[in-house]
Amino acid sequence: MRQESTYDPRRPRSIDAYLKQLRAALADQDPALIQDAAYDAEEYLRAEIAAHPDKSEADVLELIASTYGAPDEVAAAYRDTEAKVKAALYSPPPRPAVETPSLSRRFFSVYRDPRAYTSVFFMLLALATGIVYFVIAVTGISLSLGLAVLVIGIPFFLAFIGMVRVISLGEGA
Question: Which pTM does this prediction carry?
């Protein structure tokens, strides 16, 4: 009995083809979402291929398609998640005032507004992360310049630039 071939030209046969199809499926989305999806997928795919060294890349990708999902399925999941996040972050408009409140009521109304507390939380979070980023930047630049005369200076500088890049990607997301 002859076995039929399951080759599908639309199925990716390599990581690059998978990522290309994923980016194409997310072409109408925010560039940050596309970048996140591509990085997540690439990390997962490379880890799975490393976990199965006895199989070819195409075989592992076929196996992954049943668990992780095809590029269009992954894109749909990212779109759904993005829509849920946007809906959760949407703040409702303030209620219209029926009557003109007194001066003291208008002044103290900020204490009853939950968005004010959210804003204070994010300002404090920005203060903390700003201090951490400043310390990393000053320490990294100082050590890079100080170690530039030694052999370890260039690798340290490259590691510092890589760390700043990772932090930037995290902040951008």
Answer: 0.49
